[in-house]
Amino acid sequence: MRGYELCLIFQHETTEESIDQKVGSLQEKAVSIGGEIIKIEKWGKRSLKYAIKKQQKGYYCFVSLTGDNKTLHEIERMFKYDESVLRYSYIRLEESEVKAITEIPEPVKAAETKPAETKAVEEEKTTEAETTPEKTENEPAAKEIAESAEASDIEI
Amino acid sequence: MKRPTRKRRPMYQKQKICRFCSDSNLQIAYKDYSTLRHFVTERGKIIPRRISGCCAKHQRELTRAIKRARSIAIIPFTVSAA
C-alpha cells in the first residue's frame, strides 16, 4: 500500500455538505478496495492564482490516503467528469511522510473503531476549517498588496 | 597575432548559504505558498540556484514543489505585466 495525497479544488459555490458527501463517498470506496483515508485537510475558499474553467476562486481540500492503483482509478472515475471539481491531482507520499501523518494523531486512530467518535472528530475539523480560511484569505491578500506596492516602486 | 590580454576584474562575492541546509526547521512543501514565493520572481519564474544560493539537492526539491504548486493554482505560471 502506498500513500497518496489528493488535492481537490471544488467550485467555490459548492456547499460544505456536498463536499463532505463527496469526500465521504470517496472514503467508502477507498475502504471497500482496501485503502484507508489518513487525513482530511480543508483549506476552504481561496483565490486561484490563475483562472481554471473561468473560475477565479476555489475550495481547496486535501485528502491523504493509502491505497494502490485501483484506488487511483476510482478517484479518477469519480472526479474526472464531476463538474463541481475544478481540478484534482494526486501526489505519491514517501513512506516517512505517511508515518509522520499516521503516528501523530494516535487518539484519532484509536477512535476509528468507533464510528460515532470519528464523526465528532471530523466535525471538529470542519469547524476549524471554517474559522481558518478567513485568516488564510486575508493574509495572502495583504502580502499581494505589499508585493504590488513593491513592484510599482521598482517600475517608477 | 596575440590576443590582447584583458585584466580580469577580481570578483568579490559573499558566500551564499543554502537556506534549507542551515535551517532544518524550514521545510519544502508544495502547499506552502509563504516559503515558495521567495524562490519565484515577480513574473512567476523559478529563481536559479546561482542567485538563490540553494544547494543542488534543495533546488531540485524546490523546483518540484513549485511545479506542483503551479498545477494546483497556488503559484501562477506567469504574471503578465500590469
SSE class of chain A? alpha+beta
* Uncertain stretches of 5 or more adjacent residues of chain B: none
Order of helices and strands of chain B: HHHH
* Percent range for β-strand residues of chain A: 25-35%
Properties at a glance:
heterodimer, A: 156 residues, alpha+beta, 31% strand, disordered C terminus, B: 82 residues, mainly alpha, 34% helix, 0% strand, extended
Task: Give an overview in words.
- The complex is a heterodimer of chains A (156) and B (82).
- Chain A is α+β, with helices and mostly antiparallel strands and 156 residues long.
- Chain A is 55% helix and 31% strand.
- In chain A, α1 (16-33) runs antiparallel to α2 (69-80).
- The longest helix of chain A has 41 residues, at 115-155.
- Residues 114-121, 127-143 and 148-156 of chain A have low confidence and may be disordered.
- In chain B, 34% of the residues lie in helices and 0% in strands.
- Chain B has helices at 19-22, 33-36, 49-52, 56-71.
- The relative contact order of chain B is 0.19.
- The chains are: A alpha+beta (156), B mainly alpha (82).
Produce the secondary structure layout:
The complex is a heterodimer of chains A (156) and B (82).
Chain A: E1 2-11, H1 16-33, E2 36-52, E3 55-67, H2 69-80, E4 85-93, H3 95-103, H4 106-111, H5 115-155
Antiparallel strand pairs in A: 1-3, 1-4, 2-3
Chain B: H1 19-22, H2 33-36, H3 49-52, H4 56-71
Put the structure in a nutshell.
The complex is a heterodimer of chains A (156) and B (82). With 156 residues, chain A is an alpha+beta fold.
